Structure formats: structure tokens, C-alpha cells
Amino acid sequence: MKNLCGIDEAGRGPLAGPMVVAGVILEKEILGLNDSKVLSEKKREKLFDEIKEKSKYHIVFKSAKEIDDFGISFCLKSSILEIMQQLQKFSNNFLMDGNTNFGIQNLQKEIKADAKYACVSAASILAKVSRDRFMDEISPLYANYNFHKHKGYGTKAHIEAIKEFGRSDIHRFSFKLKALGEGSFEIQKSLF
């Protein structure tokens, strides 16, 4: 579809770091696009620069604090609305990867759109690479957590680091960990 703006996110589920949402309108064909999760890091990095050269795009970061303060759905919806506003002069046709459009008018939704539509694949790549680069950049500032290895996701090593050092200011405090006994403990505590 000509002038379709694809939208996708990276970092909805990690325990630390931002969520990044990208919108892309491709102006030229790009070969090798796919859902960022099935591409190698090297391939994503190569495509990242080509996407930026051959498209209109907008990238939004929502910090861990914003996610804690407002919730993941609010942050996702406000990011999508910002992208639509920034790119509306180039397109009025928006497609989000996923199963909800958050009640946003003029936003289509489709599960696995990031594997079916080039512009959504491109958005997936911009979001993922932008987030990964951010986590790599901040990793030396949070040496106890090795963010460059797991990008803030809930790996065994990351959970062990949280057990030992607690959460940092870049962690999401609203995300409760069963491994730390937080799930049911929070509920029990509120009963008293």
C-alpha cells in the first residue's frame, strides 16, 4: 500500500530501560525487511541506516519512569498518537502491529503485521535497534547489570543481579517479579 505508515514497538516487556515506538513510511523499496526479531543484529544494524535514508520516520522513547507513572498502555497510545501527528502530512493511513488500536481513530491493527508489511517491518527494526543502542550506551553506567548483554529483559543473569543489587533508577518498579516473591506478596500485604 502506497504511503502506508507502519508502526511497531520494542521493549514492552523488559524489566529495565525504555519502550521505543517507531513509525515508518517507506519512500523507496528496501530488500531484506522482516520482523526485527527474526533478523540478526548485524542485519538489523545494516537495515537501520538504509531505512532512515529511504523513509519518513518518527521514533518515540518512553522511559521506565513514564511507564511506572502512567502504565504501558498509556505510554504506547501516546507514542502512537505522537507518531501519527508527526507523520500525518505524509500519510493518513496507519497500521500498527498487534491486536489493539487503543481506540485510536484511523489506526488499523493486524497481528504479525511486522512480518507481512515492509513499512511495519521497518518500524520494528528502527524501534529495536534504537532501543538496543540505548541499552548498550547506558550499560557502562550500570555495570552491575550488564544491560549490553540482555537489554533489560528478564534473563536469569539479570534477575540474579536485581536480587543482589536491587533495582536501579532505569528499572521498572511497577513490573513485579515472581522470582523475587513480589507477585503474591504485594497482594497479601494489601490485605492488612
UniProtKB/TrEMBL annotation:
Protein name listed in UniProt: Ribonuclease HII
Binding site for a divalent metal cation: D8, E9, D97
Keywords: Cytoplasm, Endonuclease, Hydrolase, Manganese, Metal-binding, Nuclease
EC number annotated for this UniProt entry: 3.1.26.4
NCBIfam families, per database record: PRK00015.1-3 (NF000595)
InterPro entries: RNase_HII, RNase_HII/HIII, RNase_HII/HIII_dom, RNaseH-like_sf, RNaseH_sf
SUPFAM superfamilies associated with the record: Ribonuclease H-like
Record family assignment: Belongs to the RNase HII family.
Broad EC category: hydrolase
Molecular function GO labels: manganese ion binding; RNA binding; RNA-DNA hybrid ribonuclease activity
Organism placement in taxonomy: Bacteria, Pseudomonadati, Campylobacterota, Epsilonproteobacteria, Campylobacterales
Cross-referenced PROSITE patterns: RNASE_H_2
Domain RNase H type-2: 2-186
UniProt subcellular location: Cytoplasm
Cofactor(s) for this UniProt protein: Mn(2+); Mg(2+)
